[in-house]
Write a structure and sequence with these properties.
Largest sheet: 6 strands, parallel
Number of helices: 10
Shape: globular
Distance between the termini: 6 Å
Strand order of the largest sheet: 3-2-1-4-5-6
Strand content: 5-15%
């Protein structure tokens, strides 16, 4: 059945951000004499909020709370500017142009803060493509809680059956499925993602065009 709307995640879907962030965490830990647990590092990809900061805190040299760990990170990287242009996933703008030409309604639902989402949209000049931009920080719990997708559906005014979510992480896929959405997962073997609940798989985000053409 042809979909009417596509809801995009951001990290790992529009920008390949996870390797950049993971390297920042590695650098911070090494600078402070911490032992890096690579299994824990892999789990960081796709995590948000207390899960992310709690996992990093477990590797810190002394006992800290997730909020303290977040403060340490923010202080260390206060002047860091994310290289959005370098991290943009290939073929995103042509894909978004095609989707708009085909009259798909586009939304962005990311666990990132609204500030970070806006920075990405500014850097890549993508503001005009999305009718709704939803941050997980708006909710008490973000992904895998389905509330972000339930809210996005309410803003779109469409049933879940008319929409497709594009995700990559375990938590993102779980959130979308729990909201009743079908999911196209961007395959990524670099992290410990469980994508088994996804309905379709994309080698890269730009392959979404081909999927929709044959749906």
């Amino acid at each position: 059945m042809k979909k009417k709307a596509v809801i995009f995640d951001m990290d790992g879907v529009l920008i390949d951000s996870e390797p950049v962030y993971l390297q920042l965490f590695r650098d911070l830990l090494r600078e402070n004499g911490c032992v890096i647990d690579e299994e824990k590092m892999r789990v960081l990809a796709g995590a948000s909020g207390s899960r992310l900061w709690g996992t990093v805190a477990q590797m810190w040299k002394e006992k800290v709370t997730p909020e303290e760990m977040r403060r340490i990170y923010k202080e260390r990287y206060a002047d860091f500017r994310f290289p959005y242009r370098d991290a943009a996933c290939p073929g995103i703008r042509p894909l978004l142009n095609w989707l708009k030409e085909e009259t798909y309604i586009l939304a962005l639902a990311s666990s990132s803060s609204e500030e970070v989402i806006r920075q990405m949209l500014d850097a890549l000049e993508l503001h005009g493509y999305f009718s709704h931009i939803i941050s997980g920080k708006m909710f008490r719990e973000s992904k895998p809680n389905p509330q972000i997708y339930q809210y996005t559906l309410s803003k779109l005014g469409l049933p879940a059956a008319d929409c497709l979510a594009v995700e990559d992480s375990t938590y993102g896929i779980q959130a979308a499925k729990a909201a009743g959405l079908q999911v196209a997962a961007v395959k990524d073997d670099r992290f410990s993602f469980d994508q088994s609940q996804a309905d379709w798989f994309l080698s890269k985000t730009a392959d979404l065009k081909e999927l929709l053409l044959h749906m």
